[in-house]
Specification:
Elements lengths: L1 E2 L4 H10 L14 H6 L1 H13 L3 H10 L4 E2 L4 H4 L19 E3 L26 E4 L2
Antiparallel strand pairs: 1-2, 3-4
Length: about 130
């Protein structure tokens, strides 16, 4: 899970969401500079809290608390994510296909993008990887 607690208000919300609102007043975490100096301790505190919950439980609690947070996904998780693998996505179209792995093209098409995904059949000289 990734979260951003560098901004004072977000840090305050983060500490409150994990049940440790007093941390924002402590000398080691009161300012962004303090939190950066003690980043390993901040990470350990948050990681300890997250480890007692499922990813979805932790994410829900942080988001409900107004914390900027997002799941860190494995590439295989992307094919089940409705934001990436929507009904028109190549991820839902059957067997694996070869896609370009370099250059300025992408096998992922964003919902508001006017640029379609590029398959290996369009640029065979630059392609060769497969999506499992």
């Amino acid at each position: 899970m990734d979260r951003d607690a560098s901004v004072q208000e977000i840090a305050r919300r983060c500490f409150a969401a994990i049940g440790r609102p007093e941390l924002i007043e402590g000398p080691r975490f009161a300012t962004a500079k303090d939190r950066v100096t003690h980043i390993e301790e901040v990470d350990d505190i948050v990681a300890g809290w997250v480890s007692d919950r499922t990813r979805d439980e932790a994410l829900s609690r942080l988001l409900d608390g107004g914390v900027a947070a997002a799941p860190v996904m494995h590439v295989r998780d992307l094919f089940d994510d409705p934001h990436v693998a929507g009904p028109d996505s190549d991820a839902r179209r059957g067997p694996p296909q070869k896609y370009c792995a370099s250059g300025s093209t992408s096998p992922i098409s964003l919902s508001r993008s006017s640029v379609p995904p590029t398959s290996s059949s369009e640029h065979p000289q630059r392609c060769g990887g497969t999506i499992p």
